[in-house]
Every structure is written in structure tokens, then in C-alpha cells.
Amino acid sequence: MSSERILVTGASSGIGEGFARAWAAQGKALILTARRVERLEKLATELRAQVPVELIAADLSQPEGVDQLVAGCQQGPWTIVGLLNNAGLGWQSSLAQTDPAKVAAMLQVNMSALTMLSRAFLPGMIARRQGFILNIASTAAFQPVPYFAVYSASKAYVLSLSEALHEEAREHGVHVAALCPGPVATEFQEVAGMEPRFFCPQPIGG
Length: 206
Ligand SMILES: NC(=O)c1ccc[n+]([C@@H]2O[C@H](COP(=O)([O-])OP(=O)(O)OC[C@H]3O[C@@H](n4cnc5c(N)ncnc54)[C@H](OP(=O)(O)O)[C@@H]3O)[C@@H](O)[C@H]2O)c1
Known about the structure:
By secondary structure, the chain is α/β, with parallel strands linked by helices.
């Protein structure tokens, strides 16, 4: 059986879960990660009817969580041929009124973890001249968004990083891209404490 795996961060809900389902339907074997293990187990049980699926729980708001995820992937008999850097969160508030711990978590998950996971898996992809990294940015990457300032700035970082890495990687046969969704109906809005009047999300696939 092939050891090739696509690593999906933030697979326990929303867009990450949607990608996991779509790739499983295409026969792509997966490693799923997030914090909520029971959610991952439920999804994995379902998708294992189609493809091999591994789980590695990790809290990407902690640098140690990123290290544990990388170590877990590298210790297994797997080759990471694709990385979906999807895990992310926002928080609707002025920076002055945002809990500093929430600010730190946003920066760590949205930017640092995404960057360090790319750093961990790009060399192998380059050596094999095969692979892809897909980073989930946002339409918020294209303009400053007051009361979503850290989130939108973090997504501008993701877009800029992705465009630069695209150039660095493509001569090695590796694809790097950013996806910039508009509003999608997921748990994002609840996690972000958003008021419904600010948001008209579309369901996944809608
Ligand atoms: N929904 C939208 O309108 C929209 C629009 C543009 C871009 N995006 C982006 O799309 C991506 C996915 O968001 P979504 O809409 O699917 O939201 P979601 O349903 O809230 O999913 C977020 C995912 O990120 C994971 N995550 C959050 N904090 C984490 C942490 N500390 N460690 C590990 N995993 C963590 C969550 O898993 P656990 O909680 O189980 O850890 C969950 O699987 C995000 O990067 C978001 O910024 C969303």
C-alpha cells in the first residue's frame, strides 16, 4: 500500500473537513490533525471506508504542538506529498480589547504554525520533485479590516508568503498556492464571536 499522505490541518470542522472528504473521495490517503480528537476519530472512521487515514492530535497555538505534529508525521512510515495549511481562527474585536492570549494564539496558528509546517515538509517535496502546499488565506488578505485587524493582517501574511514560496518551489516541481475564500458557513463565525448581521456566509459547496 502506498505511504503517500496529504496532511490536513484543521480537519475537525469546516473547510478542512470539506477538503478531507473531497480528497478521500478521490482516493487520496490522509493524515488529519486538529485538537478535537473525537471529531477527528468520527471523520476518520467514515473516510476509512475509502482510503487509509491517520490521526495526529496537536494544538497548533503552541510551538511544541507544531513540533509534535511534525515528529508524528516523520516518525510514521509516510511520505507527505501534500500539506493543507487550513487551521486558523479569527476574533472580532478591536485589538485594544482583545485578550492578549487570543492575539498570541491567532498569530501562532494562522502564521507561525503554517510557516513552520511548510518549512518542515518543503525540503522532502523538493528532494522528490513532487508535492504541494495549499495555504488557506482569505479575502481578508486583500485589505485591512478594522475590528478584525490581526486576522486580516495574518491572512495578508499567508498570501504574501504563499506567493513568494510559489516562486521558490516551482522550479523544483513543487506547487505552493493560497486559497482566498469569501464567507463560508462553518464554525469560524462562532469561534470569532461574530455578530450575524456582519456575515452572510455560504454553505460549503454552495
Ligand atoms: N469560514 C469562513 O468564512 C472563512 C473565510 C475565509 C477563510 N477562512 C479560513 O479557513 C480556515 C478554516 O476555517 P473554517 O471556516 O473551516 O473554520 P472552523 O470550522 O472554525 O475550523 C477551524 C479549524 O481549525 C482548527 N484549529 C483552530 N485552532 C486550532 C489550534 N489551536 N490547533 C489546531 N487546530 C486548530 C480547528 O480544530 P480544533 O478546534 O478541533 O482544534 C478547526 O478544525 C481558517 O484558516 C480560516 O481563517 C474561513
